[in-house]
From TrEMBL:
Name this polypeptide is given: NAD-dependent protein deacylase
Domain notes: 2 residues (Tyr-69 and Arg-72) present in a large hydrophobic pocket are probably involved in substrate specificity. They are important for desuccinylation activity, but dispensable for deacetylation activity.
Localization (cell): Cytoplasm
Cofactors required: Zn(2+)
Gene3D superfamilies: SIR2/SIRT2 'Small Domain, TPP-binding domain
Amino acid sequence: MEPSGTAEAAKLLAQARRLVVFTGAGMSAESGVPTFRDALTGLWAQFDPQTLATPEAFRADPALVWGWYEWRRGAVRRAEPNPGHRAVAAMATRVPETVVVTQNVDDLHERAGSAARIHLHGSLFAPRCSACAEPAPVPDGGAEPAEGRRLAPPRCGRCAAPVRPGVVWFGEALPEQALEAAVEAAYRCNVLLTVGTSGLVYPAAEIPQVAARRGGTVIQANPEETPLDAVCEVNLRGAAARVLPALVR
Ligand code: BJW
Ligand code: ZN
C-alpha cells in the first residue's frame, strides 16, 4: 500500500518548475548506512557525538576520530544507492531546474546520477589538512579500520599537520558557498521535497522553512513525524526507497 498523499504529492511534483530535494540520513538508511538519531539503529545510540563529531574531539584524540570516520567511509564504499536515490535522479530529468541539497556525507546521490547537488555537511571523500585546509588524498580503498579501531590520520603534504575528515562538526560553520547556494535554491523553488531528515540540526533545517515562507510547496517523506511536518503540504509516512519511486512512476 502506498502511503496516503502519494497521488497528491506526485501531482504537485509534476507541476514543479524549480524543485529542491532536501535529504538527510534516512535517504540512505535502506542502503544500509545508519542514521544518527533513530532510537535503536542510529549512530548516536551507540557512539557519543561529543567525543567523535566536534573539533575538540579531533584535537583530543585524532586517531579515535579519524578511525571512526574511516570505518564509516568503508561502509559507505560498500553500500549501493537505493531506489529512492534513483527516483531523485529521475526527478531531475523531469524538472530540469532541480537541486539536490543533502546533509549526507555519503556519495550515494552522485552514484545514483544526481548532477546538481550541494553537500551542506561536507563529505567522507574530501579529507583536508586540519591546519592549512589543503585538500588531502582520499586514502586507498580496502584499508579501512574495523568498528571502534583507532587509526592515526595521515599528515598534510604541505605543513605536516594531521589530516581531518572533510565533514562539518557541531559548532563549525557550514561551507559558505554551499549554504548560500542552498538558501538561494530554497528561496527560488516552487516545490521542495524533504526526505529522511529529523529537521533538528541547524542551520540546515532552515532550508525547507525558507521554501515554505517564500510560498513554495513542501512535501515530506519520512516514516516518523518531524518538526518539519508543520510547514509541509503533504506528509508521506514511509521509507524513502519505497515512497519516492511511487512519485516518478
Ligand atoms: C527515514 C528512513 C527511511 C529513517 N526513509 N526516512 C541549540 C539549539 C539550536 C541549535 C544548536 C543548539 N546547540 C547547538 C546548536 C547548533 C548545532 C545544532 O543544530 N544542534 C542541534 C542538534 C541542537 N548546529 C551546529 O553546530 C552547526 N553549525 C553551526 O551552527 O555553526 C554556527 C557557527 C557559525 C559561524 C562560525 C562557527 C559556528 C553544524 C551542524 C553539523 C552537523 N553535523 C552532523 C555530523 C556530520 C559529520 C558526520 O557524518 O559525522 O551532521 S550531526 C548529524 O546530524 C549529521 C547530519 O547531517 C545531521 C542531520 O541529521 P539527519 O540527516 O536529519 O539524520 P537523523 O538521524 O537526525 O534523522 C534521520 C531521519 O530519517 C529521522 O527523521 C527518521 O525518521 C528518518 N528515517 N529511516 C526515510 N528508510
Ligand atoms: Zn597543512
